[in-house]
Structure formats: structure tokens, C-alpha cells
Amino acid sequence: MRLIAIILASQLAFAAAAAADEVTVGQAGKAFNPADLQLKVGDSVKFNNDDTVAHAVLVKGPQESNLGQIKPGDAKSVTFDQAGTYDVKCAIHPKMKLTVTVQ
After folding, report:
1. Do the beta carbons of residue 17 and residue 40 sit within 8 Å?
2. Residue 53 falls within a domain, yes or no?
3. Number of domains, the chain
4. What's the rounded Cα separation, in Å, for the pair 102 and 92?
5. Confidence at residue 12, expressed as pLDDT on a 0 to 100 scale
6. Is the pTM of this model over 0.85?
7. Structure-model confidence comparison of residues 88 and 1, the more confident one
8. Within 10 Å of residue 72's Cβ, how many Cβ atoms?
9. Which of 28, 51, 46 is nearest to 100 (CA)?
10. For the segment 16-72, what is each residue's pLDDT rounded down to a tens digit?
């Protein structure tokens, strides 16, 4: 019986991980594109720097992340493991803003 429970738990964890999506957000013209996102818990966002200048992505909300500097042509990702509303901005260019809603 315990073995069955362990197998079921591992299959559920695998199914949850498989259901997670990765959404790409571009950074160009000193702006995030798109500027608003709707995600599910467990989804991740990949920040592609398509700009000619570096950016530094900061995520504020139920969980916080500092992705550090992202050079032109590079990308970094963050996974949203908690529901809520997140404010994302560039620490270098504070007018760059993104709102992420996780359900």
C-alpha cells in the first residue's frame, strides 16, 4: 500500500511539472513585451534581452527575485511558485514595468 502511495505521489508531481509553461518576455526599446502576463502557479518566464543595452530584472511580490544584469543577447528565467500579483521592473531603467498575475 505504501509503495502505491509513493508511485501515485511521484506521478502527480511529474504531471504538475509537465503542465507548467514557459512564457518568453522580450526586452527591447527599454520596454517589456508584453507588459502584462497571466500565469499558472509553476509557470516560468524567460526574459530575453533583445535590446542594445543591459537590463536588470527585479521581481517583487509573494516571492521576490533579482535576476541580476542581463546583457544584450542573453536571457534569464524565473519560476513563479506562488499565486499573487507581481511587479517586475528593470533596476537600470525604472520606467520598464511588467505586471504578472499568477493563479
Report:
1. no
2. yes
3. 1
4. 25
5. 45
6. no
7. 88
8. 13
9. 46
10. 555 799 999 999 999 999 999 999 999 999 999 999 999 999 999 999 999 999 999
* Antiparallel, parallel or unpaired: β 97-102 and 84-90: antiparallel
Task: Give a yes or no: residue 58 inside a domain.
Answer: yes
Q: Are 86 and 95 in contact (CB under 8 A)?
A: no
For residue 64, is it within any domain?
Answer: yes
> How far is CA 74 from each of CA 11, 46, 61, 90, 100, rounded to the nearest angstrom?
34, 10, 24, 15, 21
Is residue 6, in this structure, part of any structural domain at all? no
CATH number at residue 85: 2.60.40.420
Query: Coil, helix or strand for 65?
Result: strand
DSSP string, 74-96: -EEEEE--S-EEEEEEESSSTT-
Domain that holds residue 35: 21-102
**C-alpha grid cell for residue 101?**
498575475
